[in-house]
Amino acid sequence: MEAVAEGLWGLADHHEKEGEIAKSIKCLEAICQSHDSFLPIIEVKTRLRLATLLLKHTHNANHAKSHLERSQLLLKSIPSCFDLKCRTFSLLSQCYHLVGAIHRQKQILHKALDLTASANSDVSANLWACNFNSQLANALIIEGDCSSALSVLESGYASATQLYYPQLQMFFATSILHVHLMQWPDDNLVQSALHRCDEIWGSLSPDKTEQCLGLFFYNELLHIFYLLRVCNYKSATQHVDKLDAAMKADLQKMREIQRLSNELNAISQSLSRSDLPNRERLLLSTKQAHLQDQITSLSAFSSFLEQPLEPAYFGNASRAWQDKLFLAPPPVDGEWLPKSAVYSLVDLMVVVFGRPRGLFKECAKRIQSGIQTIQGELAKLGINEGVREVDVQHSSIWMAGVYLILLMQLLENNVALELTRSEFVAAQQTLLRMKDLFVRFPTILQGCESVIELLRGQYAHYVGCYSGAAFHFIEAAKMTESKSVQAMCHIYAAISHFCSGDAESLAQALDLIGPVYRMKDSYVGVREEANVHFVYGLLLVRQNDYEEARTKLAKGLQIAHTSTGNLQLISQYLTILGHLALSLHDTIQAREILRSALTLAKKLYDVPTQIWVLSVLKDLYQGLGEVGNQMENDEYQKKKSDELQRKIADAQSSIHHLELIEQSRFKVIDMKRGVAASQSMSANLDIPESVGLWTTQPGSSSSRLLDVDSRRRPKRR
């Protein structure tokens, strides 16, 4: 019977190589369903192979789970077979993960760890211990038990240390850093985790780091998330540039491999001709060997592929190696996200850092590139227009959630970009697209609800609906547990009340900004402080306390300039300081400051701020009697004001305008979607948001834009 099994295994392998997965599965099922008895070890190997095929090529995780549970029972009667037992535990854990049975997953992983602990501390046992600790940490994070996850990851790090395997140590070190960034228990703990990653990565030789492309991207992105959290945007930009260069180099290499592969296929077809002359056959064979060597050289990206162990298939990810960014060697196979998701995330980071600097053309290009990539990946998961949350295969929920959240992040930044350029209709359309996604996937995207409400407030403020804007900002604050985001929402709401101008609204603005101002030193980083100084300064100007306002605004400008690099916020600081200088009769300084503010506003295509600067310049020119400058200034101001009013009118004429500014939340179906999605997707990748606000100049009806980047959100490994 062994010979029969060997034959069916070989036939199954042949069908799989030909892409005939159904036939391959039937060959293997013939062994399991045979009336003749096979040895238990043969049945176990067959069921393992079946489960692997089902996980790799189908959504049938439950069928795979049944095969693995049967294998586990059979293995209990076999005293040896350590490797087979570990493979069974690993794949069964993944099945429980895919079907959302997290409690069962933890149970099976604890049994697996007991098995590795009872075995000799050899290389295989330690590698499998790393595998099980990694999966157990992931399950604990899904349940929100970060402290236990950290303990498990430290155990994995200890196993990797015993193996003297720095790449594997780096895998666990970055995973530990990721959990610390999610939890942020203490600044010192986070910095210690960061420094450990730097030390291990620095100890790797250049040839090793070149092979660890996945670890490079993971480590660099975690550094960016940390630097965003502490508002060190200038240092973060350097990491973004490194990532972007590495991504472009890898994409170029993949294109070259594809070109060589196409050429190799053409040669192989020519060599298959029976009437090919010997001389020509010899030349083509030589060229074929040369092309194969070139492809092999370019494809030698990771020593992780040298061990032929079965990989993990989280999210039902049946992808070629070119589409993966491995973090660790088999059997850990710690792929964080698919390469397409990581590269979309890099595009997003380029946008996040490019938009405040006015690099709108490049940002728009990256947003569209990221959206197209994500839409292609969602289509592979069966998610097209009209598909709703309940229609998604359970095994695809987690991966779909990753892509949907990235899509929402890109759309969110697109809204911010269009609002900055006063393209209100385009912003309106993108915001409606975000609403459609949220309504269709309310549980997976429930963590994005506050962002949508925040952007509704943005939109309402831009078109002059200040009371509606304040409502949406307050609602957005209620939808998040982040103290930082709540503070930014209250700052936005204070600006909206400030723009209303009446005494009651000003009192409400002060009530909102006072608590944030008193707590400004308690936030991580300086983002809240930079913005609260601005709003507090506006209120002091309104109260005619010019000297105190000047002090607060000068301090805020220094923070914005040295830490945030946000040109829009800087231009607005300069505008109000120019207004103050003029009020204090320092016309020379006022002229210089206002010219700088106008230059920045023009660079950003920021029409509201341009109008605000021009209104202050008008007062300056009138006071100095510069009639020519005043006439030129008035003409340009009228041109910009007419342009702005026309764009607002276009937005208000849309049938969706009232829907967006209505003072009520969007209605969605009851969010009772199951299992892991509701827990894992509400806490997603730590990717910054970008939003902006209008306000009015103190004592004037001119409009301007206050741009504040809320760059923080919880995340999941």
UniProtKB/TrEMBL annotation:
It comes from Linum trigynum. GO terms for biological process: cell division; chromosome segregation; mitotic sister chromatid cohesion. Residues 692-717 are annotated as: Disordered. PANTHER family: MAU2 CHROMATID COHESION FACTOR HOMOLOG. One of its GO terms (cellular component) is nucleus. This is Sister chromatid cohesion protein SCC4. Belongs to the SCC4/mau-2 family. InterPro entries: MAU2, TPR-like_helical_dom_sf. Keywords: Cell cycle, Cell division, Chromosome partition, Mitosis, Nucleus. Pfam families: Cohesin_load. It is found in: Nucleus. Gene3D superfamilies: Tetratricopeptide repeat domain. Its main location: nucleus.
